[in-house]
Design brief:
By secondary structure, the chain is an alpha/beta fold. It has 2 domains: 5-199 and 331-349, Vaccinia Virus protein VP39 (Rossmann fold, 3-Layer(aba) Sandwich); 220-301, no CATH class. Helices cover 29% and strands 12% of the residues. The chain has 12 helices and 9 strands. The strands form 2 sheets. It has a 7-stranded mixed beta sheet, sandwiched between helices. Helix 2 links the parallel strand 2 (26-32) and strand 3 (48-51). Helix 1 crosses helix 12 (335-349) and helix 5 (106-117) runs parallel beside helix 6 (137-153). The chain is globular. The chain starts with a strand and ends in a 25-residue tail after the last helix.
């Protein structure tokens, strides 16, 4: 059976693409503006890689290098830069201010390529703040662009807005995201009920969330690398006193430690430590020395541990400096989430069922995590 061809935009290190590969798709074109991301893509995949601003990419160019015609691409995917809409940016500000950010017009470029390529289906990933509750300005903009495409080219794209917590679908990480999914034939996309939960239920058919320990327990870190992961600075002593699963709030008048900080005076991720039996919090792209999630052993997470929490292939060779590598990992879409969505898109849009088990779903660790004392 021929694999559905994928064109990938804003590819980063390829988190979506490796997930779709596990689901049986074939990425034929990947692009990003970041040179380190492009080097990572070129090192680890058999696709055509273009290192360019999306504003310079055209359907004619994509079709030429992939030997496809307009309308032949099975799936167009990508996650335009989320900074204008994220909490760490100014996503809580007014919509006009967010849309004036130059990075926000990459959404228009994504839909320009939908119009030029007219794929059988497309998937766009972003932070939930892209379409915040009580403010549907961006949603109206997306619906208008889609309607214009349908009117001119007689397609039937219908946007399905799918909000997910990736932990609900087997990713060992609490990561809230929105996926905008559409079929050229106008099919409805129905997101299956969560497979995992914090309170597993036989009646609901859910299993317990995959934990940070499930993801990392088999990882061995070289001694020379391990030594570099322990922070040395003014907050080290306080970090060592915080129990797993807690953050700087432990050291406030409401916590159980020393009242060093005022209540809610810092960002949530400050001195935030993982609990081995729970999923990780969202992996950030640009963490500081004391920005969590930090390991319950009072250190930063190793690159291999970050990759495991993002369900990226263990053999992935990420190019660039240590800072760049961590940024690429933090910006990635968890591959297990992409695999799950890829399977659902194939079954619901292309009417092709598969009985193959999901390859990137984690199995629970056999050994229990060690007891952590503070």
């Amino acid at each position: 059976m021929a694999k559905d061809k994928v064109v990938s935009l804003f590819s980063g290190l390829g988190g979506i693409d490796f997930g779709l590969k596990a689901a049986g798709y074939q990425t034929v074109y990947a692009s990003d503006i970041d040179s380190d991301c492009c080097d990572t893509l070129a090192t680890n995949g058999d696709w055509y890689v273009e290192c360019a601003d999306v504003r310079e990419v055209t359907a004619k160019q994509i079709c030429r290098v992939t030997d496809t015609d307009v309308g032949e691409v099975g799936l167009l995917v990508g996650g335009p830069p989320c900074q204008p809409f994220s909490k760490s940016g100014f996503g809580s500000g007014p919509l006009p201010k967010r849309m004036r950010d130059r990075r926000a017009d990459t959404i228009h470029e994504y839909f320009r390529l939908v119009r030029e390529l007219r794929p059988k289906a497309f998937l766009m990933e972003n932070v939930p703040q892209l379409i915040p509750d009580g403010n549907s300005g961006v949603e109206r903009m997306l619906l208008k662009m889609t309607a214009e495409i349908n009117l001119v080219y007689r397609t039937k794209y219908k946007l399905n807005f799918v909000r997910v917590n990736c932990a609900d679908y087997g990713v060992p990480q609490i990561r809230q995201r929105i996926f905008i999914i559409a079929s050229r034939e106008g099919f409805e996309f129905r997101m299956p009920a969560p497979l995992y939960s914090g309170s597993p239920s036989r009646r609901l058919g859910t299993r317990r969330y995959r934990s940070a320990w499930d993801a990392t327990h088999n990882i061995r870190i070289a001694k020379c690398e391990l030594q570099t992961l322990y922070p040395r600075g003014r907050w080290t002593e306080l970090l060592n006193q915080i129990p797993p699963g807690e953050n700087y709030l432990w050291h406030t008048h409401r916590g159980g430690g020393r009242p060093v900080f005022k209540w809610r005076s810092r960002f949530w991720h400050f001195l935030l430590k993982l609990h081995p039996e729970l999923p990780s919090w969202t992996i950030p792209a640009n963490p500081g020395g004391y920005t969590g999630p930090l390991h319950w052993e009072n250190r930063r997470l190793a690159v291999s541990e970050l990759m495991a929490l993002q369900t990226l292939p263990a053999a992935l060779d990420i190019q660039g400096s240590n800072t760049s590598v961590r940024r690429q990992i933090g910006n990635a879409v968890p591959s297990a989430m992409a695999e799950f969505l890829g399977v659902q898109i194939r079954e619901q849009f292309f009417s092709r069922r598969t009985n193959k088990k999901l390859q990137l779903q984690l199995r629970p660790a056999i050994r229990r995590p060690p007891r952590v004392c503070v």
